[in-house]
Amino acid sequence: MPALFSGLASPVACALGLTELEQRLAAHAPSVAFQQQETRIAQSRLTQRQAESGWRLFGSVSGGRTHEIATADSTRSYSNHGYTVGASYPLLGSRSQQRLREVEAQQETVAAGARAALALDDARTRLRRAYVALWQAREQKRLAEAFLSDAVQARQVLGERQKAGLVLPSDAQTAQSWYTLAENRRQAALRSEQVLLAELSLLTGLSPSGLEPLEPPRLAADLKRPANSETTATALARLGLEAEQARIRAQKAPGIEAALTVSVSNSRESWASDQTGRAVQAGINFSLPFELGRLRSAVAEESAARLEQARLGYDLARQQSTQGRSEAEAAYVSALADTEYAREQEAAAARAVTERRLRRALIAGDVQEQLYRARFNYYQAAQQRLEQWARLQNAAVDLARFGYPLVPTPLPLPDRMASTLQEAPAAAPSLAARTQPVAQTAAGLAVTSGAYLWNSHSTLADPDAAVMAWQAAGISRILLGLDGSQLAEAELPVRLQALLDTAHARGVKVSLLLGDADWMTLQERPRLLALIRQLAPLPFDGLNLDLEVEQSKGWPEEHAALRQAWLDTLRAAAAVSPWPLAATFHHRHLDSPDLADALRAAGVQEACVMIFSSRRATVLATERKAFQSLAALPYSLVVSAEPALPVSESFATLGRQQIATLAQALLRQRGAAAPALYFQTWQDYQGLK
């Protein structure tokens, strides 16, 4: 299958990821290089201390000539010379001092290594934060540019309507300030981008141009897995305590300096006749202060104080680590909740933009100003979602410093938000052609609705007509499938891009839909991953895997093994997908008590629960079960409109009114948190009366 996608080769495949950049830190980050030299110095000092400990050689050489008065009338002259060689070994306090210097050098070497690890940890955190901030700045720039795309036209329209008395001057001035704000933010984002590229370049040794392209960051912390018990900073404090303990053990007989010496001396004197002499000596030399007791008492007091200080420092470091870990956990959980809220606010604001665009086509009056305000509200909501995304990423970075692993679960950048701010193409259907779709949308379902579109040939052939039909039916989410013949088309990327651009411009989200039970096998799974990688350049809003584990050979006898293969496949797909991952599955899986944790661990961000029943009570009961089983994991319900199914399993013969009644019931049951309602399939739902 990869051969079919040669035209879809993605630049992301060659992009630098965070892992590759982190691997360059040790060789290029200035702070790390500085600490590495400190470690090198400490190792050299240790070698010096080891070399100067123990036995030492000593020696001396002497010589001279002597003149003596022998009698009143004569003198005597003679010469003498000699040498002494020997070895000495320190004892008692002297040996203790040597050992103490050696122990201190050993501990300093270990501490220097720990400080180097701490510097690398700091540099890694700095790199990750800069990486996230760079993407945030770039997305802020994209959002601002998208919002500013209609600035010239908006100012012209507002000016004309103000002159005509249709817009108050204060309202026009307020609208003008929106564009000023966006331009200021764009300029700030440009400056931030340059600063952050320079910082990444400094940390990695790559030029700014060598940092392109970069993969989006996907940082998530796994709170289910226990953190490492000791941080680098705590380990450094522990090493300080161990150093003091080793120092105390090395101190013996303080104040008493002593040495064992062994020497050989040889001398020769020349006068009347040569005389030589040789001596071998061994001895012990020592010295000690008069107030030895006072000295030893002071040394013991100092050692006790240093030990207690080190113990207190270690306890303080552990307390700070525990407190910091708790605060980081709380910040991460809070960021998760706030990110979900920001996502909902952004989705609501996007829907408002779409609704205002539709109203502008049908209604006279101030609908244009309302659209401008809706676009600004969306710009603000998207900006807030971007800030919350960055906050969540940084919270994961903070947790990683406390030993929590960064898992491969993708938390993708909420990109493609800028497409919501792009105006729809100028060429638009006539008013009469639009009236019916808008009327149906206004009277549409009470909950968000979507559809599975397995046969997408006609959709790709005429994207405008397809998107209009979706909007006419109140569909705001489409799961788009592709077959083998389409995958073989060289123009497929162009067709998909055209569809996605059209859908995004009109507020419809399109996810890639892939479904084949064979992909769960180890032999076929690489084909799925290759397909995801090759389609990665396209701006889909998500990836939905409908793998139908129940259709696999061995079901239900090999239920446990097949379920694990399903989860492994989801996890592998999430690791390579640039889009949020959703999983479609039968409602029987809700009976598994660990379903929510298993799906989260596999990287799933939305569960699509199939309940093929036309009985409202059954669907509502399944929704309640999903709410309890999925434990705050976003979920949707999938019902059928397929005419081939029995009337008890499909809404095909019951029509849209029954579906509308079901949507109202879901809204009453769950309120604003009511799940989206998907239909199998789009063509069947479109044909309902």
UniProtKB/TrEMBL annotation:
A single GO BP? carbohydrate metabolic process
Query: Which keywords accompany this UniProt record?
Result: Cell outer membrane, Membrane, Transmembrane, Transmembrane beta strand
Any GO CC annotation of this UniProt entry? cell outer membrane
Task: List where in the cell it is found.
Answer: Cell outer membrane
Carries keyword Transmembrane? Answer: yes
Show the PANTHER family listed in the entry.
Answer: OUTER MEMBRANE PROTEIN TOLC
Q: What is this protein called?
A: Outer membrane protein TolC
Q: Does the keyword Transmembrane apply?
A: yes
Per its UniProt entry, which superkingdom is the organism in?
A: Bacteria
Q: What is its main location?
A: membrane
Quote the InterPro entries the UniProt record gives.
Glyco_hydro_18_chit_AS (IPR001579), TolC-like (IPR051906)
Recorded GO molecular functions are: efflux transmembrane transporter activity; hydrolase activity, hydrolyzing O-glycosyl compounds; porin activity
